Amino acid sequence: MPRPAWNTGTGSARIRAGTRMAGLETMKKTARYHSDRFRLNNQLMWPILLVLFLSPFAFGSTKPSFWLLWSMLISLCGAVLFGRMALSNARFRIAPRNLSVLFGLFSLFGAYMIVQALPLGALSPAVTSIADPSIIITVDTISLTPHDTTLALARWATYGLLFFLVLQITSNPQRAHAFIKLIYWIIVIHAVVGLLFLVQFGDTILGIPKWKYFGSALGGFINRNSFATFLAFGSVLGINLMIDRMTEEASGKGDNSIFGTYLGKGGVVTIGLGWLVVVIALVATNSRMGLFAACCGMIASVALALAKKTAGTNKAGIWILLLVIPVMVGLGMFGYGAIFLERLGQIGDSSEVRMQLYQQVLQMIETRPLLGFGGNSFEYAYPLFHQAPVSVDLVWNLAHSTYLALWAEYGLVFGSLPLLIVGIIVFQLGAAYVKAPGQDMLIRCGLCVILVGAVHSLVDFSLEIEAVTLAFVAIVATAWARQFELTSAGERGGS
């Protein structure tokens, strides 16, 4: 017997009502997941910033004990993130699958470090000392120091996890801007500390008597070039934050009054005062290449902003910033540049010594072009090649070129993987900056900080110092999150 029409209609209404209820329930769950994720990322930002703030004070975190400490803290942040996301059944804003190429190359690099530390005697030929052919080193592993290679693996894994955590934190644009501003002010604080201990507290390292680099600002570092690279990152952030503030004023965003833009909280003058302190501290480090790399990064920032032909860009203000850079560097030279200028006159002698060192490092690479001597093994492998004319009065525990160090420790193939990863990131950031609808401060910061690191790494080892690398990874990850957001928005718009 057929059902009455009213009964059928009631059933359809019930189905529609049930569908609406299910949809509302789904929306509520989604909103809850987003709320949990938002709150979690807000909370995770602070311990990450704490690590970035404290790590330079520990002599730049050059010792394995600090590598393990920061690794433990960042791993704890990772465990909290993954655990709470799993409990909430929520999705990552930027999932691991969105990093497939970068993650694959990074995993391959890590896997090779494991291979270097394994007892694979067939793959580990004996090493003969060029300095003394009677010395032959035979080990059961590719790495001459497998335990140090294991520590290197832990350090690199920390960088990878930090990159992923910062991606989650800065996937929100407002939080990303706040995160970069806080990193900038952290670097300003370190610049202030460096100047205070140079001129007010007896030219010491946080009150500890120096054993070298007298007359140079070091902050909490034990090497002026590493501190200079750290400050150079801050100089780039400062320039870009000032450009961003002026762009907001020109486009009518935020408080676009003269007071709000220039004199208010977070205005150009406030940021500029911090930037001036950073530049003066940078000059006071007496690091020639550090200052040159910083100038490259700052000028590139201005050039990228000027090259972006978009409405609402304060071109006049940006041109003024370009002129301000040499003026402020000159002001720093006037007050703190005596030793720096003296060192400029010694560039010829220093270059000759470096070239002699690099020739011997190239001999190392030629000896093991594919295998390398093992992660973190340079300090122990180089003495096998160390001979005149490179001074024997000094301990050469680093290659003074991150590129050569990578190839010496990991071989030409695997040692090039970190360079390839950074190269891919640069390409992605550059493409996103070109396609971005307007000026994008975060992407400019990422590109120009990479430029600073790339230039200084040609002749020094700053990115082999953990405190510097942590800051580098955090800034670049923030920029990458922004380019991912722009790319995803473009794909959605075109579909």
Radius of gyration: 26 Å
What class, by secondary structure content? mainly alpha
Strand content: under 5%
This entry's quaternary arrangement is single chain
| Approximate helicity band | over 70%
Could you give the order of the helices and strands?
HHHEEHHEEHHHHHHHHHHHH
Number of domains: 2
Q: How many strand units?
A: 4
- Give the spatial strand order of the biggest sheet: 1-2
Biggest sheet, in brief?
2 strands, antiparallel
Could you list the spans in which at least 5 consecutive residues all have pLDDT below 50?
Answer: 1-8, 26-32
Cα separation of the termini = 49 Å
**Which outline best applies?**
globular
Chain-averaged pLDDT: 87
Number of helices: 17
Can you tell me about this structure?
The chain is mainly alpha-helical and 495 residues long. The chain folds into 2 domains: 101-169 and 361-415, no CATH class; 175-345 and 425-495, no CATH class. The protein is 70% helix and 2% strand. The strands form 2 sheets. A two-stranded antiparallel ribbon has the order 1-2. A two-stranded antiparallel ribbon has the order 3-4. α1 (5-54) crosses α4, α1 runs parallel beside α5 and α9 (288-307) packs antiparallel against α16 (441-457). The model is unreliable at 1-8 and 26-32 (pLDDT under 50).
